[in-house]
Amino acid sequence: MRIGALEAGGTKMVCAVGDENGKINERVTFPTKTPATTMPDIFAWFQEREIEALGIGCFGPLDLNKKSLKYGHITSTPKVSWRDFDIVGYFNDLDIPVGFDTDVNASCLGEAAWGCTKDVDSSIYITVGTGIGVGIMVENRLLHGLTHPEAGHILVSRAPNDDYPGVCPYHREPFFCLEGMASGPAITGRWGLSGDELKNRPEVWGLEAFYLSQALMNYIVTLSPKRIVLGGGVMKQKQLFPLIREKTVALINGYVPLPDPEFFIVPPALGDDQGIMGAIKLALIQTQTNLP
Ligand code: ZN
Predict the structure, then answer these.
(1) Can you tell me the distance from the alpha carbon of 274 to that of 285, in angstroms, rounded to the nearest whole number?
(2) What is the mean pLDDT of the chain?
(3) 15 CA to middle of ligand 1, Å?
(4) Residue 153 has what DSSP assignment?
(5) C-alpha 100 to ligand 1 mean position (Å)
(6) In 3D, which of 9, 1, 4, 3 has the Cα closest to residue 232?
(7) What pLDDT digit, counting tens, does each position of 114-172 carry?
(8) Helix (H/G/I), strand (E/B), else coil: 83
(9) Secondary structure letter of residue 86 according to DSSP
C-alpha cells in the first residue's frame, strides 16, 4: 500500500510516502509559508505518487471532533494565515481516507507503533522544544476530549531562586506553566544563551529537570502511563535524563509503584522520525475504520 504522511509544522512541512510497516520510501520538505503558497505543492506531490491513504500530524490547535463542521481545521493558531484553514478538506479531491491528529499525538503513535513504547498500551510522548507538547495514548487510543490535551501548559511551582517570568503569554505570575518555564525559548530567555552553549552549566539542567519532573509527576498520577518518552530539541541534552528520573522518583516519593526509571523515562527510539511515522499509522488506522 502506498501511504502518504504529512507532518505539518510551524516552520516546515515534511511529506513522505511509506508502507504498512512504517518504512519511509520517499520524503520531501517544503517550508511552511501560507496555505495558498505551500499547499498546492504538497497536494501535487502526493497526487503524483498516487497514494491510497493519507495521515496528517499537524501543529495546533485543531478541531478533532468528527461531528463538528470544522473537523479537520487548524483553529486559533497564532500563525494568522493558517487560522481556520481546512487542512483535511484540502485533500478531498484525492478521494482517499485521511487520518488527522496533533503533531505530538502522531509522535506518540509513531513510537507506540514502531518505537520504544510498542510493548505497552498506555504511554505519553513529551516534546520539549520551541514549545512543549504532550501526546497521550490510553489503552491503545490517542486521547482527545474537549479539544485535545494541551499538557505543556500544566502549572508548575517556580523554583525559589528563579525569578524568570516565563515565556507563555497566557500563564503569568503568580502562576507559571511548564512551557513558559522550561521550553527552549525559556532556557534561552532565562540564561541569555542557547542550550548548546549552556551544555556544561549544571545549574541550567538541574533547574530544567526541576520543572520537567513536576510535570512528569502530575502526568504519572493523572494518566498512569506505563512509559514516558521525552523528545524534542531540548532533550538532545542527554544529561537531563538521569536528573529527571531522579527528581521524578523523589517527587512520587513511593506513592505510586514505578518501574525501573531507566526503562520508564526514556528517549525516543525513532530518532526524529516518530512524527512522520505516526502520520503513516494515522492513515492506516483511518483506512481500517473505513471512514474516508
Ligand atoms: Zn502556558
Answers:
(1) 16
(2) 96
(3) 30
(4) G
(5) 24
(6) 9
(7) 999 999 999 999 999 999 999 999 999 999 999 899 999 999 999 999 999 999 999 99
(8) coil
(9) B
Give the residue from 90, 97, 113 showing the smallest Cα distance to 55: 97
Nine cell digits for residue 23: 518504512
- Structural contact between residues 16 and 66, judged by C-beta atoms closer than 8 angstroms: no
153 Cα to the center of ligand 1, angstroms: 4
CA–centroid distance, 169 to ligand 1, in Å, is 7
13 CA from centroid of ligand 1 (Å): 25
Whole-number Å distance, alpha carbon 287 to ligand 1 midpoint, is 35
Please state whether beta strands 227-231 and 98-102 pair in parallel, antiparallel, or not at all (unpaired): unpaired
Residues 6+ apart with CB under 8 A from 202: none
User: How many CB atoms are closer than 10 A to CB 137?
Assistant: 24
Neighbours of ion ligand 1 (CB under 5 A): 153, 168, 170-171, 177
Write the pLDDT tens digit of every residue in 120-130. 999 999 999 99
Alpha helices, DSSP H, located in the chain = 35-48, 103-114, 178-182, 184-191, 202-223, 240-252, 261-264, 274-289
Residue at 233: amino acid letter: G
b/e per residue 182-198 (b: at least 16 CB within 10 A): bbbebbeebbeeebeeb
User: What is the chain's length?
Assistant: 292
Indicate the pairing of strand 155-156 with strand 176-177: antiparallel
User: Cα dist. 171→63, 160, 184, 272 in Å?
Assistant: 23, 18, 17, 29
d(CA 155, ligand 1 centre) in Å: 8
Percent of the chain with pLDDT over 90: 96
Ligand 1 centroid to residue 172 C-alpha, Å: 8
Pairing of β 155-156 and β 123-128: unpaired
